[in-house]
Amino acid sequence: MSGKCELPQIDIAGMELPGMRRAVKGEAVLGQMLKRAASPGYRDWEALASSVGWCACPVQLTSTDVDGQASAAYSRCNNRRAAVCPSCSRLYGGDVFQLVHAGLFGGRHGIPETVASHPRVFATLTAPSFGKVHTTRMDGQCHHHAYAGRRRCEHKRPVWCDGRHGKTDPELGKPLCLHCYDHTGHALFSWCLPELWCRFAIRLRRLLARRLRDIGERPGTVKVTFVKIAEAQRRGLPHLHAVIRLDAAAKPGEPPSPPTTRLSALDLAELVKHAAADVSVTANDGTEKGRAVRFGEQTDAQHIEPDSPDSDGTTSRKVAGYLAKYVTKSTADFGISPVRIAPASIEHLEVSEHVNRILHALVSLSVLPGNEGMCDWLHTLGYRGHVATKSRGYSTTMTKLREQRAIWHTSQHNDDNTAPEEKAWAVRRIGHATIGDRVLALTKAAQQRENHQAARAALDSREDQGEL
C-alpha cells in the first residue's frame, strides 16, 4: 500500500489557526504539507495523529525497550478551549454534557434515575450593567432611538443605535461610549465573581434551612447540589449558569436520593433569586468605603421540566447542551492569548479599545490591598475562577469519565484481551513538528466533526419520523 495521500482542498492563504495569533504564510505551509504527504512515513504519522483525534497540539512521546527498539505515541493536549484545540475542546464539552446529563437524568455513570424527580432549577447569574453596549434584543434591534431617544451623553456620544447586529458583528459588546462605561466596576466584578458565588451558595443553603423550618421540616434532611459553568459575555464579563438540585442528605460516596420535602422546583427557584439578590462582596476600588459588587438584575432561575415530546420549556437535554457549549469558550474571541500575558505587552495586543481599557483597569487596581495577583489573570480579563465546577455528589466526575474512555480505548486496540505492555515514556516534543502538520490535523479534525454532525442529524431525523 502506498504511503502517500491526496491532500484535502484547503484555502491556505491568510489562514487563521487555533491557538495562533497571526496568519501563516501560505506558500511555506503548503510546502510542509506536500513534504509530509509525500513522505514514506506519512501513514505512520497519520496513525499517530488520528489516535488522539487529530489533536492540534499533541504531546509526542517516545520509549525504548530493552532490545533498543524505539516506539512512539501521541497524547492529547486536553485543552478545553476551542480556540486552542477544536478536537480536545469537543471532547471536553462532551464530558461536561455527560456529567450534567447524568445529574439531570440519571441512569448512567452510577447516578440513579430518581434524580429526574428531584426539584431542579436552571439558574443564570449575570453581571450588572456598567454602561450601554451594542447588543441584539429579541426583536433584532440594538438601542433603537424609538426606545432610547436621540439623547447624547456628556461626552457628546449618541446613547442610541438603530443598527441590527449579526451574531459575528465585531461591534457586539462594545460600549456606546467608552468614556461613560465603568471599566473599573467591570474589572472588579470579574475579579470578585468566585467569592460572590461562594457567598451565594452559603446564603442559598441558609435560606433553604430557614424555609424548611418554616414548613415544619428538619433542615438537616435536605441538601443543595449543583454544577456551575462560567461563560464570557460579548462585553467581556463572565456570568454563571448553574443546575441546582435538592437531594436527601447522605453520607459522602452515597448516590443521590430523592429528598423528603414539600418544597418544589418553583420554591427552589424563588430561594435562588433571593440568595442572588442578598449577597455582595466589598472590593477595593481605591475609595475609602470600597465598592459593593453584586449580581445583576437579570438573574434568572427556571424550574427544569421533565423531558417529553410536548416539552417546549427548559428541559434536561437542552440544559446539558447549553452548558457543554459554554464551557469551550475562551477569551481568544477578544483577541487575547489563552496563556498569561505581562502588563507591558498590553499595548502590543490586537484588541479593541474596550478590552484594552479593561486590561488597564486590572493593572491599575492590582496595586491596591486585596487585589494582589490581578495581573496574573489578564489573559482571562480578571476572572480567576474555574470554568466548570460542581458540588460533591451532584454527578460523576471528569476523572471517572476519562478513566472509562481510556479503558474503552484500550479494549478497542487489544483484540486478545491481554494486559497492555507497560513502558516508560519520555516527552519528545509538545505540538506538531511543523505548521503544515498542524493544518493537516486541524483539517482532518474538522472533517470528523462535520461527519459526526451529519450522522447525528440523520439519526435525529429518523427518531423524529419514528423509524427508531
Automatic annotation (TrEMBL):
It comes from the Bacteria. InterPro entries: RepSA. Residues 288-316 are annotated as: Disordered. It holds the Pfam family RepSA. This is Replication initiation protein.
